[in-house]
Amino acid sequence: MADITDSIPIPASFETHPDRYVHLRIEVAGAVATIRLDVKEDHGLRPGYALKLNSYDLGVDIELADAVQRLRFEHPEVGCVVITSATDGVFCAGANIFMLGSSSHAFKVNFCKYTNETRFSIEDATANSGQIYLAALNGVASGGGYELPLACQEIYLIDDKRSAVALPEVPYLGVLPGTGGITRVTDKRRIRRDRSDVFLTLAEGIKGKRAVEWGLVDGVFPTSRFHAGVADRAATLAAGGHPERNGVTLGPLTVEASRDRLHYPYVDVTFDHAARVATLTVTVPDDAADVPADPSTLGDRFFPLACFRQFEDALLRLRFHFPEIGLVMVETRGNKTAAEAIDGLLATRQDHWFVRETTHFIKRTLKRYDVTSKSFFAVVRPESCFVGTFAELLLGADRGYMQDVAGASVTLTAMNDGFYPMNNGLTRTASRFLSDEEHARTIAATRAPFEPAQAADAGLVTFAFDELDWDDELRLAIEERSSLSPDALSGMEHNVRAAGPETMESKVFGRLSAWQNWIFQRPNAVGARGALTLYGQPLQPQFDYRRC
Amino acid sequence: MASISLNEKIPNNVDLAGDRKLQRALEEWQPNFIDWWMEMGPEGFQQDQIFLRTAVSVEEGGWAHFDYVKMPDYRWGIFLTPNARARTIGFGDQIGTPVWEQVPGDLRKDLRRIIVTQGDTEPASVEQQRLLGKCAPSLYDLRNLFQVNVEEGRHLWAMVYLLHSYFGRDGREEAEEMLVRRSGHRDSPRILETFNKPIDDWLAFFCFTMFTDRDGKYQLAALAESGFDPLARTTQFMLTEEAHHLFVGETGVGRVVERTVELMKAAPSGDVKAVGGIPLDIIQKYLNEWYSSSLDLFGGEDSSNAAIYFATGLKGRYKESSSSKITDHVALEGCYTLQIPNGDGGFTNQEIPLRRAMNLVLRDSYVDDCYRALERWNGVLEKAGLSQRLYLPSDRFNRRMGSCANLPIAPDGAMMRPEAYAGRIASWLPTPDDLAYVRSCMVSVTEPGKFAGWIAPPRKGIDGKPIDFQYVQFH
Lengths: 548, 475
Known about the structure:
The structure holds two protein chains of two kinds. By secondary structure, chain A is an alpha/beta fold. Helices cover 42% and strands 17% of the residues of chain A.
């Protein structure tokens, strides 16, 4: 299969704006917002496939992610968001199969990862922003087209005797739903396992009353009453919304992007392509904590928001634009006092919606960091600023290397103690010290800076090397890491990072990285006579029926 | 130890004075080395003045400076053969690219393993030989034993230098471990099994220096081809010293044979034991034992590690860069035909890719070298008009490694029934009685120019000195 997606940077950017949306329409009417899928067939990210039946590619999902994000920051007054289709009879046919079929494996995996993150952001908005998502299925919702509703709190299906919900990946394509469909059917909607089994092998899906009876949707409305029924329910869920909140504008990011560098005001990434290593540096400026009484008046200039928007964009570009980079050295610079002060504000001003939104956004971005398939080695030097929120970059790294010299330190703040759970539901300190909860609590409660020896003893860094060893050890670590199999590393790192308890979220990403990757690579899916390869063609797939 | 005196004490050409990292590592390690030497080095001779060779520089002749010295005061140095020109890697996948002055991170573990395994043998042999001085057959031999011992000590230093300079904290820990392991210790033995059996008679010592040290020579020669330049240059310098150890072994066995021949001729009954000599059949059993166990040191015949070491440029063949016989330095083509037991009492040919046979290729060079020495010893028998000859057993005999490991195979290479083999083994390998007899011959001779009755004197002395020179001055 031609590796189209590895040669051209697609997409060119992860930023968009409702003014530029191609595939979505977003309407805000008081406390209720509506996102309408109106996918333009001939506006795929690249040529070679048509986005029929509201099927989506990454370009569509970038718009969706943007819409969810902007509703939280720009329209915090909204209490309910309805997702529906601009075309009755067709809600959404899921990820475009021809797009998947002509994409590299790496692109498919990153695509699935991104779309999963978008769906979790929908659930996060519902749970934490008072913006309840409601799916109004005014037509067939199939595959990814049903997984999107599954991420909403409530699902209503039009009862037109035709429209059904379906997860036909197994019978049609020989793969599995890639955006958490199975997990949400079993763990979120808690559908009985035998019914789940039937549903997941039923290509045409389930409609009407049976869909309600099995719990696949929360209700059905006949065509004549569908729009009114949905509107009523949305108004009830919105409960008047949050009129006291005044939105802020998320302006475009400032980025200079080239093959050798990504440069943002607070985030900088440089690349050594020959070594397949990048260095990502986050800088905390002196004025980071110069914040007025109402931080929302700063809008997107509020430092933690600005910084993590840049960090998020850098992570996404690392994933999609720099597949050959295997190792990212994570550095911080800047003013430790300012970093502590900004954390003080984040921790004490959780009563303010904007501070809360910013905190949740940082949480989500750190989760993106956790599931990015690159090795991350954090590097702590005297000039580093691994303080509080920024110490999460160290705690979330695969290893931490600390220079054992005066001035190097790691400081934890209240923000490290509960505000940024990982997708296993635990903080990064609790997750780090699974064998010793007491130790985890002690460390998390320590506010004094950890000097190198203490940081190493406490387990906050992996190694502390003095200046005589430093250069050699770091060089060897980098070269050694870069020589290992990238596939084995992706699997190993995900396993290690995902220690501890399971949540729906950890299950989705875990299964994505294991089963889904494996099935997507098997000849039964992508071989010459594989089901994914032959989808939409006259030939029938031929399976190797031996079970693995 | 202050760094100034450290630099004075340790002759070197690695800029120790300007290398803080190395200084610090050695400041910790050197006192532990001396403690180890006092505890595990030659017992009973630490206060005596020994006429020893010390390498004080890499200049012409500088590596062989002779003088009296007390062993604990020996100036163990660190030397690399100077690099004449910019070398390139001479073999494997990266052939033609510049050699590495630093350890490539991806090869760190393999290189460390190679260096640690090599380095561990050096103190191990000193430990194995620590009691031998008490029954040395002459002052000349006693001095040679100590020369071998201090130079094995220096070879440990050479490997420790590499660990300290290029392997960071892990390297320092490994260097420390080298002083913790003990030959034959149940809980903390030396890495290679051959180095865990005590050497408590001089015929064993000569066999060890003949056969086991000779394995060391070939391992060092293979590493002297390495793409990791500091390792290549360190091992090159070690080889110049190693040659003396092999000389001690080869001439040592030769002198025992020579004396035995004299006694055989003088005692027509043929009972060499009756006149205090070591009979040829016991010598043969020693050869069988030490030759076969030394073959094990080359590792498996079909080895993926060997292929990796060759492919990555870590370890070449003997004279990879200088021999005109080796023309294909990539060695991706070609096979090596192994004879492996077929489970049916016979052997079948099996072809393996050349790279996987690199242990065997190196071993073949070693075997040729051993046969050359064998011919010399047999020359003594021939010259004396005796019909007996010594031999080297088949490489299948008495093996613990490889395809013939632990199989009942005779010295001529034939597979036997296990019962038949068990019945014959006492005629092929030293029995407890044989060992006890040889041990009974070991008496200390300390008068200059005198030799024990079971060994002939050498042709000439050391460093142009006469044979009756006072090679050791007892305190």
